[in-house]
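Most newcomers find our protein records easier to grasp once they have seen one. Nothing more is needed to start thinking about how sequence determines fold. Here is such a record, shown just as it appears in the course material:
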Amino acid sequence: MLLLVLVLLLAVILGGAGFAIHILWWIALAVLVLWALGFVFAAGDRRWYRW
């Protein structure tokens, strides 16, 4: 019984981590797009961001 509970707990933890990692990939993609747009809309040395 304890082994079953541990396996289910591990499945829940790994499932939650997988969801979080999936969300982080989408956030990273959005940041990459914003970063690329910064180069497209940059006029000379003026940039809309200060990285």
